[in-house]
Known about the structure:
This protein has 245 residues and is mostly beta strands. It folds into two domains: 17-142, Sandwich (Jelly Rolls); 144-244, Sandwich (Jelly Rolls), CATH 2.60.120. The protein contains one helix and 20 strands. β2 (25-27) and β3 form a beta hairpin.
Amino acid sequence: MSLSAFAQLQPIKSGVFHWDDFELKTSEGRISRPILEGVSTHFDYLEMHATTQAVGSKGSTAHANDDIEELVIVKEGTMEVMMNGESTILGSNGVLSLMPQQMHSLKNVGDTPLTYYVIRFRSKKPMKIERGVASGGTLTVNMDSTTYKPTRVGGVRSYFDRSTAMCERLEMHVTTLDRKVESHEPHTHIETEIILMISGETAQMIDGKEYTATAGDFYIMESGSLHGIRNTSEEPTTYFAFKWK
């Protein structure tokens, strides 16, 4: 049983989380990495973990979340998403935006280990299933189905920008920054945001404090935080950026 069953969850603070710092919990054919659990400006529950499924291991047991929405992001490997008897394949940097009350299971169907992040959340405002359905319901997106659009500092791939059962707005994209450039001037917004590193090296200023991150690490910026990211290396850097309210 989670510790949150016994103690009040604490607010999740802005900052950086490093892949190599995550505790490993192993079981047959599976490695789990608990990352964070708490509350945020818009969510009364926010939890994140990473899972690695070995080659040939049994997939997750089919289940549905009564009042939890999920984002699943494939870090590496090949994932089969099974929903309503239908199979969808996601490769590296593929994303599943999962509605509450959606029966699903996840399985490694590749010839290398499958590693993926799971972000689970429940809104402080009432869940609106009808709003989520009207916006497209559960959604899967592979990177190669998106269009790369050049920008003055690199390029961007839009995954989605929509409302969901839990969010008035949930927006997700992948940014590439050229060598030694910043994405934009430091700014604030009402949405909470996560930047999840895919490759390269970055520094992020959050409320006057500088943090650094590489592949597998991520930054979180709570609603209203002043922040700005830049590429600190001589090579391009790529990362997921997603925000919600």
